[in-house]
Specification:
- By secondary structure, this protein is an alpha/beta fold.
- About 35% of the residues lie in helices and about 25% in strands.
- It has one domain: Alpha/Beta hydrolase fold, catalytic domain (Rossmann fold), CATH 3.40.50.
- The strands form 2 sheets. The protein has an 8-stranded mixed sheet with strand order 1-2-4-3-5-6-9-10, sandwiched between helices.
- Helix 3 links the parallel strand 5 and strand 6.
- Helix 1 packs across helix 8 and helix 2 crosses helix 3.
Length: about 260
Amino acid sequence: MTNTPERSPERPAEEEIRFVGGSAAELSGVLHRPVERAKGSVLLAHCFTCSKDIHTMTRLANALSDAGFAAFRFDFTGRGDSDGDFAKKTLSGNVSDVVRAATTLIEMGFGPCGLIGHSLGGAAAILAAKKLKTVRSLVTIGAPSNANHVRHLFADSEAELLREGRADVRIGGRTFELEAGFVHDLQTHDVLDAVSSLDRPYLVVHADDDTTVPVTEAEALFAAATGHKSFVRYADGGHLFGDRALADRMTGDVVEWFEATL
């Protein structure tokens, strides 16, 4: 697939958008408008403990707007600049936030969209796409095929979390407070079933050296998908595609996918 397109010297300023999320908290988003009339729109959902400002999301949004798409990245409830209590986070809540963000794109006049979800945001994107007929094409990056997979990130604290109902957990070297409802809610979702019923183009993106979500999860997602699908697999990149050259290659492949499917 191709490299990421060159950045436009006339890139417009980013526009902050506030909207109401699935749990009634006010969420924060950033809309990247292309210089010319948008030829389509793409919604971006970040990973579990990340925010809309992580380089994975900003690089994708910039590349998409340079390619002529309106790109909308947002913070889930309780993360980044959004209101709400992260401790009360659930995957169901994330799905509702994605639905509300997609609705906000419609209300801004951008019509049907593409959807990108990274890591647990990818699981939320898959589950939300099943509810959203306005999503025409889907991309997941480093996403799990089983929502329960995320529990390994706080395995040392899960017993206390379930016993006490609320506990501090360590994820990626940082401390977060979670409620037991997060774990209980994970068990109500069947990501592979949602993938198998998708009737829209689906691109699976994953790196072989991802130690947070192993590439076997991507293989399961791809195998379960029954429609128009593609699997872009990188030898390197890790979970966050932190290397700039690798990130540019990945964003270029995602842009090319949406140019072909939106």
